[in-house]
Amino acid sequence: MDSSDFKPSRRLVLQGAAMTAAVGLVAPLAAQAATVPSDAPKPLRNPQLSYPKPPFAEQSQPWPGLAGKMDPRPDHGESSYQGSQQLAGRRALITGGDSGIGRAVAIAFAREGADVAINYLPDEEADAQEVAQLIRQAGRKAVTIPGDIRSAEFCRRLVKDAAQALGGLDILVNNAGRQHSYDSILDISDEHFDWTLKTNLYALFWITKAAVAVMPEGSAIINTASVNAYDPSENLLDYAMTKAGIANFSKGLAKQLADKGIRVNAVAPGPFWTPLQVSGGQTMAKLKQFGSDTPMKRPGQPAEIAPVYVQLASPKSSYVTGQVYGASGGKGQP
Fold first, then answer.
1. Which residues contact 249 (CB under 8 A, 6 or more apart)?
2. pLDDT tens for each residue of 160-219
3. Which residues carry out catalysis?
4. 142-146/171-174 β-pairing
5. Domain total in the chain
6. How far is CA 11 from CA 112, 131, 253, in A?
7. What is residue 192's DSSP assignment?
8. Is residue 44 part of a domain?
9. How far apart are CA 77 and CA 309, in angstroms?
């Protein structure tokens, strides 16, 4: 089954030419990073100075936002991630795989030898097609499945279609999330509260339940929590609540699935430069100084956290389950 089976009827045709040009620019570097190993030691770099630091330019996008329109554009490892076949032959489904952390994980998984299916919203088609092209350049199969995970029916179909297209499913990354900044609980409407919980918690449950039914022994489930699970921001009340739930869910499910031979872990990112932040996830004041309150004095880039997901998906981590891995630039827990 080809990824075209899942293309939405409202294809963003006019964005195709721009997307193709953008992919063309990164293709030679991406292919080189995916296929040409280097034994030469890489120069040491001060991590504080490795990526852009605030202040950032004022910017905003309508939800869900596109990575290609951010300033600066996030680094997902397009030209830097080099694989070593840690996930050779594996079959992964990643929600929110079009941009941000999900995009970086999709690129890393493909360059580690996995075939990858990504889910995203139809409005994110331009970003998603860039990711699919990068996966294919790594010599792996790319499956694109757009749709809204707030629907239980779609979540079940998503898992079914991904497993059918990939020939099975042995890695699940629940990464898609909804985040919106509100200064007061009085500002959070019932509609927006329901939107956040459906995206971050209900979908997690529905997708995981469907996946567990088809995943073989040796599979891995990785959920994206947040530093907000442990140190909630005052303007992300509903989001932080769901991320605490994700961490708890991951620990409990790990115990339940141990006898089935399926490992479950979570990653708790700190401030990362993704479309979540510019599409309502932060106030403009916080966005301009995003990440400056960490010891690194900058936000993380998605490329910097993708290796954590690779580690947790790899069979080398066979004794690692029920854990929450932090990557927060020196601030927060765990």
1. 201, 204, 205, 223
2. 999 999 999 999 999 999 999 999 999 999 999 999 999 999 999 999 999 999 999 999
3. 239
4. unpaired
5. 1
6. 30, 16, 37
7. H
8. no
9. 13
Name the token pair of 58: 């004022």
pLDDT digits (tens, 9 = 90+) for 106-140: 999 999 999 999 999 999 999 999 999 999 999 99
Give the type of residue at 205.
F
CB crowding 220-251: b at 16 or more within 10 Å, else e? bbbbbbbbbbbebbebbbbbbbbbbbbbebbb
Q: CA 222, CA 208: separation in Å to the nearest integer?
A: 10
Rounded to two decimals, the pTM is 0.86
Residue-range definition of the domain harbouring residue 244: 91-327
Question: Minimal CA–CA distance to 257: which of 323, 206, 212?
Answer: 212
Q: CATH no. for residue 224?
A: 3.40.50.720
Overall size of the chain counted in residues? 334
Q: Which of 172, 114, 177, 106 is nearest to 144 (CA)?
A: 106
CA distance 262 to 212: 8
